[in-house]
Amino acid sequence: MSIATSYFDDVIEKLTRVRNTQNEAIRQAAEICADTIAGDGLVFTFGTGHGGFAALEMFPRTGGVTGFRPIVESSIALMHHVLGDQGTAQYRFLHTREGYGNAILRSHQIKEGDALILFSHSGINAVILDMAVEFKERGLKVIAVTSVPHSSQVESRHSSGHRLYEIADVVIDTGIPLEDASQFIDGLEFPVGPTSTSIAVAVGHAINAATSAALVARGETPMIMVNTNSNRTQFAHQQNDRNYAELWRRLRSREFSAPEVK
């Protein structure tokens, strides 16, 4: 068997496990998201490093519903620079510093009725936990897409002492083991073929789709992004522009509060 086949088999096995064990958690997450979107709020999504990929996939994305709002902090999301501006040294420093997550939330004008999805394989770093704690203190819902097997084996890097799965209202367990990479090659010390990103992105899309279904079940009509690379490009652009206008309406309706000065 080739290493590629072995890798694909492993991803399929992990997706099958999520399908068989996390359906109820995904349903609960979708109900929270539907409550937020139907209530004129926003479902913010966030992750650091590779967790940010899943957060970005939530909107705007073909088949996605308007109402999800990714938060992207370039300094802790873009890892490809490695050296120089926004390099690995800055990433390692920033995502472990408490207070940074709170500053990010202040800039996004969080309001009553919003919800938050945090994508974090380990669920232990300060920025992620800052956000989870603040949302909980405001009485807002937090959804975690995280690996309980990984997180339960490592210590929190936050003063709360908690890991993400211990704080969130709904936990969707990706089940990814501590190593993340899943393929071992004879003669090579370290495993290859990471799986956490593939599973997290799939879970995000499942939440998105289930949210649309929950809205329809309530008699609501979710505003869906349409693929523009098709034979109805003009229609798709018009539809998507309506979606963007709806997002802007939700953002514009927020009362601006300047970030606090210390």
Automatic annotation (TrEMBL):
**Coiled-coil features, chain-numbered ranges:** none
Q: Which domain of life is it from?
A: Bacteria
One GO MF term attached to the UniProt entry: carbohydrate derivative binding
SIS domain: which residues? 33-220
> What GO biological process terms does the UniProt entry carry, in alphabetical order?
carbohydrate derivative metabolic process
Alphabetical list of InterPro entries matching this protein = RpiR-like_SIS (IPR035472), SIS_dom (IPR001347), SIS_dom_sf (IPR046348), SIS_GmhA/DiaA_subfam (IPR050099)
* SUPFAM superfamilies xrefs: SIS domain
Q: Which NCBIfam families match?
A: PRK02947.1
**What PANTHER family does its record include?**
PHOSPHOHEPTOSE ISOMERASE, SEDOHEPTULOSE 7-PHOSPHATE ISOMERASE / DNAA INITIATOR-ASSOCIATING FACTOR FOR REPLICATION INITIATION
Q: Mind telling me what this protein is named?
A: SIS domain-containing protein
